[in-house]
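Dear Dr. H.,

I hope your travels went smoothly. While you were away I took the liberty of generating a structure for the chain from your last submission, since the lab meeting agenda had it listed for discussion. I wanted you to have the full record in hand beforehand rather than looking at slides cold. The sequence, exactly as received, is reproduced here:
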Amino acid sequence: MFEILFLGTSASAPSAKRGLSAQIVKHDEYRFLVDCGEGTQRQILQSGTGFKNLTNILLTHGHLDHILGLGGLLSTFLRWEAIEELNIFGGRATLDRVHALIYDVVLRGNQPPMPLTLHEIKPGTFFEADHFTITAFPVTHRGPDCLGYVFEGKARRPFLPEKADALGVPFGPERRELVAGNTITLPDGRRVTPDEVLGPLTRGAKLVVVGDTGRIDNLVEAAREADALVIEATYLEEEAEMASQFSHMTARRAAELALTANVKKLILTHISRRYREKDVLKEAQAVFPNAVVARDFDAYQVRREDHEIQPRA
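The corresponding predicted structure, in token form, is as follows:
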């Protein structure tokens, strides 16, 4: 299961109710900040989530409304907060701009307060934990090295406690061994194999996060069968020509991607101040009914088991 917390959902400039692009994706003890627009540190504090374990930042591209908050965040780490390390992931062009922001503007000859690493990534899997992976894929926007991210739980065989109970498998290390794929021997000498207590192999939850983009045809495979697709909806279809001019997405086209890729839930963000939220939602739901417009501090749980996104806010 993944959880995504929206910290900023406005396009280009903040509005009275929406901050600039940022969201936190959580999985167990892992937390990933995806983009870091101006004011993100305040949004983190206001959300109540805090800075603990926020050691990995994934950037979709290098435009200021997606990275400028890194300056304030690092400044806070210099003075008030302590984290063990900070890893910033992005394309080469993005990291070049981030390097200038951090080292030329914020640090100005000083050392960062923690081990700080800028990781250049290219399309492909670049992060792997015991139970999930993160894969980058190319996105078309203004400028090079724009990326989207797929968070995907690893396929697993679910443990069937009722079968374990029937076989007399006690709670504790014996069950952990079976989940790990090992055969155990019970005190009475009977052997129990994993096949006797594990269900069929099922894929894990899939969350796809796209930053700014002007095309959807090259995103279908990355988004296919996602349990949740997060994508911008900066424009409405009535201004599709302007959207194309600035390499942005309309709510309708985002919905068409969700429909084509057979995703379960569409979550729209990067909303322009020029539109009413209900109009953005109406345009998207006309094509893909299971669409929502994210607001700042909305949180969603992304599950595979019940094929649904469970809203928390």
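Two observations you may find useful: The longest strand covers residues 2-8. The two ends are 17 Å apart (CA to CA).

With kind regards,
E. W.
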